[in-house]
Design goal:
The structure is a single chain. The protein has 143 residues and is of the alpha/beta class. It has one domain: CBS-domain (Roll), CATH 3.10.580.10. It is built from 7 helices and 7 strands, in the order αββαββααβαββαα. The strands form 2 sheets. Strands 1-7-6-5 form a 4-stranded mixed β-sheet. Strands 2-3-4 form a 3-stranded mixed β-sheet. Strand 5, helix 5 and strand 6 form a beta-alpha-beta unit. The radius of gyration is 15 Å and the shape is globular. The chain starts with a helix and ends in a 5-residue tail after the last helix.
């Protein structure tokens, strides 16, 4: 059985809740990624949320706020979703589709070991599974 760990992009660079969005954007550019996990200051690898490049634009820049002054804690919201490294691909797809998310942290032994993105799915899934995923994620009406 193919697992989350088999298809994920290994490793993850973290930011903390107190890091600025400017720092997050610069790190995203440097790493060529569109999302970063956010940890709290006391347990930097305790997942508190995820910041995406879109979050920075929509929740900060478009509101006329300064990315140099806004912090990750200013824009993260909700409970972050994640998947166990040993979960099967069907479970990964269910989690992403049911919550309409495009990136999913992978956890092993209470530590984040990687991230699954749409690009990872595209590299590892058969075409029919990928098409079904896209239909659920991009459908006009919520699942």
């Amino acid at each position: 059985m193919t697992t989350a760990k088999d298809i994920m992009h290994p490793g993850a660079h973290w930011i903390t809740k107190s890091d600025t969005l400017l720092h997050a954007a610069q790190l995203m550019r440097q790493l060529n990624v569109g999302a970063l996990p956010v940890g709290d200051e006391t347990h930097s690898e305790r997942l508190c949320g995820i910041i995406t490049d879109r979050d920075i634009v929509v929740k900060c820049v478009s509101e006329g706020l300064s990315p140099a002054e806004c912090t990750a804690s200013d824009i993260i919201e909700g409970t972050p979703r994640w998947i166990d490294a040993d979960a099967g691909v069907d479970e990964v797809l269910r989690e992403m589709e049911s919550h309409r998310i495009r990136r999913l942290p992978v956890i092993e032994n209470k530590r984040m070991v990687g991230m699954i993105s749409e690009a990872d799915l595209a590299r590892h899934l058969p075409e029919h599974q990928l098409a079904e995923f896209a239909e659920h994620i991009y459908a006009a009406n919520p699942v």
